[in-house]
Amino acid sequence: MAISLKEKGYDVDIISLKWKNNLKFNIYNELKIYKILGRRFTERKPFQYLIRYILFFIQASIKVTQLNIKNKYDLIHVHNIPDFLVFTTLIPKLFGTKIILDIHDIQPEFAIQKFSIKYDHPIIKTLELVEKVSCCYADHVITVTELWKQD
Asked: Are β-strands 25-28 and 140-143 bridged in parallel, bridged antiparallel, or unpaired?
């Protein structure tokens, strides 16, 4: 999608995890990519994931705010997981930027599967609440299936 937008003449910035190399910034197909917080594959417990998510959230919030001051975005498209990444856009949203939350994975179900947690566990109930609040915050929500819209 980013390449399509760039081809149509839009300015596109991408904020992502560092991947494979330690570059903090690079350009790919004329897209500016800002990379923060390298991905580890050692997280096995929910708390370890939460810490990594919070660190990424803080760094992404700072970067989104810095870039928005410089570029004044009309639209920010946030991909989950975690759903609460949508709140990295708080400052731009306060200044009128529209926010899209793109849900590729339903986080409560992801956590049930990843950590073998039962559906009635407090972590799952919390993730469900975060998902609902995140969707309410966004100006528009994209899901991969119509079934997810009903949840």
From this structure: unpaired
Distance (Å, rounded) from C-alpha 50 to C-alpha 53?
A: 5
* The model's pTM: 0.83
Overall domain count for the chain: 2
| Confidence check: pLDDT of 115 > 80 | no
Helix and strand numbers, DSSP H then E, in the chain? 6, 6
The gap from C-alpha 57 to its chain's centroid, in whole angstroms, comes to: 8
Select from 115, 107, 112, 110 the least CA-distant residue to 45: 115
pLDDT digits (tens, 9 = 90+) for 119-148: 888 888 888 898 899 999 999 999 876 655
Do 12 and 79 lie in one domain? The reply is no
DSSP 35-51: EEEE--S---SHHHHHH
In a shared domain, residues 18 and 90? no
Residues listed for the chain: 151
Give SS3 for 102. strand
Same domain for 101 and 64: yes
